Structure formats: C-alpha cells, structure tokens
Amino acid sequence: MKPRIVISKTSSIFTNLALEEFFAQEALAPILFLYQNSKTIVIGRNQNPWKEIYIDRMQADKVALCRRKSGGGTVYQDLGNTCFSFINPHSPQDFKNKNNSIVLRALNILDIEAETSGRNDIIVEGKKISGSAYKILQQGSHLHTIHHGTMLLNTELSALSKYLNPSKAKLESKGVKSVSARVANCIEFNSSINNEGFIKSMTKSYAKDYPDAEVINLDGIPPLAQKKAEVLQNWDWIYGESPQFSHELETRFKWGIFDMNMEVQDGVVKKCKIFSDCLVPDFVEFVEKMMVEKKYGNEGIDEVADGCPKDYAEMMQEVREWFKSSL
C-alpha cells in the first residue's frame, strides 16, 4: 500500500481523533493526517480537567472538551489552528526527528525559520508555535507510532488565558499539570499564512520523503471510527478517567461557614466531609451524605439540590450556586 496524505473535511475533535486511531490500527504504510477542529479544549490522557480548565466558562461558551489517548498537556484549538498527525507502522527509532524535519521544511516553504525545542515543541524567535504528543501502539508483532501536533496559524490566543490553567487553591491532583509557555501564531511571522497554505506546504514537504504518497480528501467516517468517536464523547471517558484528587471548598454564607472536603475518583465523589457552624446540622448532614457517589461537577450538585427537602431549599440553592461558581 502507498503512503497516504489524508485531509479531513470535518471539524469535530471527536471524529478526527477517532479517525486518527482508526488509521493507526489499520495502517500498512505511513499516513499524514491533517485536520482542523472547531473551538475545543483537549486534555492529555492523565490530566484532571477540573485542575486544567475553567469548566464553567468552557460550558457557557459551548467549547468542546475532549480527552485524547496520548500524554502531554492541555491545548486550546479552533479553526485558526491546524493539526497534523504522523502515523507510522514499523517506525524507525528516530521517528520524532524524521517527522519534525517534515514540519520544519513545510514552515521553511512558507518563509518561517523554525526550530525544535525541548521534547515536544517547535519555536520561532523563542515563541512556541507548535506542540506535540506521542503514542505507541502494539499491532501484532509490530509497533505503530502516532505523533500528533498542533500548528498555531491564527488562533484566538486570548482563549488560552480565558479557558486554561486556572489556579485552584487546595486542589491537589496526581495528574500531570500543563506547563505554561510563551506562544505565538505563525501569522506573526508570515502575514499571508492560512490553513490551505499550510496544508499545501505540508503535502509538498511530506512528498519529498514519500514521493509516491496519495492525497485523499476525506468526507465520511467508517462505522468502526464512528464507534470510537462515540466513546470519546462519553462522560466516563472525558471526566471519569480523571486521576484521583481531593478538593476543599470553603465559604461563608449568612447562616454560617461551609467547609466542604471531597475525595474524587474516576470523576465521582467517594467521600464528602463538611465542617460548618450552621445552626441547621441536618442540612449539613444531608449535603454531606447525598454528595457521595454523585458525579463531581454541575450534574452532581444539581442532583443533590433536586432531592433536597423544602425546609432547606433556600440554603441548598445558595450552596448550589456557590459550588458551580467554584469549579
């Protein structure tokens, strides 16, 4: 089978990552997969979304959240960003360097002089324009590698500070915390760059290493890949795969201090202890008891509030609003 350059016509992060996994499992020859995603936050395999993201802002602005199966940190993507994925069966030991050389050559075609930095980044004049993550798949007796990355062409950079890396006191996690970095769009270094131009330069650069590569514009999605996309959209995968963590929330209402301590595992509250000087101890005990085994987040606190006795309704509404604003 010939090498392929596959250009996706969908902007769904779930579909595109499902296609990537599908290609990786069935690839008999190298594939370069190029795609864009609508407004999306992508977290690494072992990251905690509650530590990495302002979830309330993300949900209010209808930004998608996806957990990928590779490692690395949290990234924001929109249609000002182009993603590339190198899928290589029987990968050479230096696959990262080989793939990076293709990307650097593509940028050079666009008159952008870039270089690699650290383990995963591509920079221009000290500013990060691209980051990558990696995954190795065992396919029978062979290893297949996925090397996927982002290229900031004209992304809304203000969205990074709007949605990413909140500082949450007292939130302790075993997950991997994203590392802040100085970032820039490629348009700063080439004012005419766009997605079409970058894809064209990537295609040209890839063809230098794989001159017989076939270009495919992909509109549909195979049934098996569709099933993978459905899994990626599932709450249990996005939130339930979060590392175990503890979270303490504390505030003062007019009726007393409310110090809420939770142990969360797989996105579900396993323990809840509330310290309070509230003069209605039954209410405190109700919340403490009912939070256990609820999903951590808006859905869980809504379920507790919906089952709250009418006598506590006013206090419960205050707790619900405060809880949601604190995540």
UniProtKB/TrEMBL annotation:
Substrates-to-products reaction catalysed: L-lysyl-[lipoyl-carrier protein] + (R)-lipoate + ATP = N(6)-[(R)-lipoyl]-L-lysyl-[lipoyl-carrier protein] + AMP + diphosphate + H(+)
GO biological process, one term: protein lipoylation
Sorted UniProt keywords: ATP-binding, Ligase, Nucleotide-binding
Domain of life where this protein originates: Eukaryota
Pathway it works in: Protein modification; protein lipoylation via exogenous pathway; protein N(6)-(lipoyl)lysine from lipoate: step 2/2; Protein modification; protein lipoylation via exogenous pathway; protein N(6)-(lipoyl)lysine from lipoate: step 1/2
Gene3D superfamilies given in the database record: Bira Bifunctional Protein, Domain 2 (3.30.930.10), CO dehydrogenase flavoprotein, C-terminal domain (3.30.390.50)
Annotated GO MF terms: ATP binding; lipoate-protein ligase activity; lipoyltransferase activity
One Pfam family linked to the record: LplA-B_cat
SUPFAM superfamilies, sorted: Class II aaRS and biotin synthetases (SSF55681), SufE/NifU (SSF82649)
Enzyme Commission number(s) of this protein: 6.3.1.20
Name of the top EC class for this enzyme: ligase
Domain BPL/LPL catalytic: from-to ranges: 26-214
PANTHER family for this protein: LIPOATE-PROTEIN LIGASE (PTHR12561), LIPOYLTRANSFERASE 1, MITOCHONDRIAL (PTHR12561:SF3)
Family: Belongs to the LplA family.
Protein name per Swiss-Prot or TrEMBL: lipoate--protein ligase
Organism: Stentor coeruleus
Lineage of the organism: Eukaryota, Sar, Alveolata, Ciliophora, Postciliodesmatophora
